Amino acid sequence: MRALVAGGAIVAVFVAAALVSLVWTPWDVTALDIAGKLQPPSRAHWLGTDHFGRDVLSMLMVGARVSIAVALVAVGIGMGLGVPLGLAAAARHGSLLDEIVMRGNDLVFAFPALLIAIMITAVFGPSAVNAIVAIGIFNVPVFARLTRGAALSLWPRDFVLAARMAGKGDARISLEHILPNLVNLLIVQGTIQFSLGILAEAGLSYVGLGAQPPTPSWGRMLAESQTMFALAPHLALAPGLAIVLTVLGLNLMGDGLRDLLDPRLRRVRA
Prior knowledge:
By secondary structure, this protein is mainly alpha-helical. Helix content is 71%, strand content 0%. The chain has one domain: MetI-like fold (Orthogonal Bundle), CATH 1.10.3720.10. It contains eleven helices and no strands. Helix 1 (2-21) packs across helix 2 (56-91), helix 2 (56-91) packs antiparallel against helix 3 (96-109) and helix 3 (96-109) packs across helix 5. The longest helix is centred in the N-terminal third of the chain and has 36 residues, at 56-91. 40% of the residues are buried.
């Protein structure tokens, strides 16, 4: 429970910053002030300014919005496609459909998100949308495998056999009886994939395949600061700590949710 509260508090701070950035930031992130570049933290600029004179705190706030939006939509794509595929494969275990789904998962797993992003951007160009698609595609087999494995353990259960005796088909059983028993597991996995999505978005932006200028991104902030670390270390420390803390908070939330939602762990604590 402590992990859930601590992780939730950390994530809430960054979510709040992202939401506030929709209507207000301390400074305009697109305004350049070359005369005020590379300033250290001060009252006017709490986290200093970058090599273009932009306020680092304002850029972090907008970068949080970008990272959270990309990771959230990518996880939604992975869950929205992967869960139905996993349910269908489990319902038709051993059939041609099951084989196609699993071999398709193996094929996607052979290509990391970065490589998928490179292939997509080679055709459509780098952007946040293409980063979402790349991360989302990589998430599909994760949720498909998880759903299939968990669903297969439920199909022999008595309540499923009773549903069959009542005349329900595979699709209806999957939706009404199998899926509700997987919600807790999917929530925990979704939290974990969310944290991995934040890292993936930062990595793609770091190599120039994520959100493009002038939209701030934590990964690109790191990339731009690496040549000026000796002059202005705050440029790297601010986005680096933001990524670390966000991922830490999400992982703590995932651990806390697992402990809270797993009845076996509740019995152990009792």
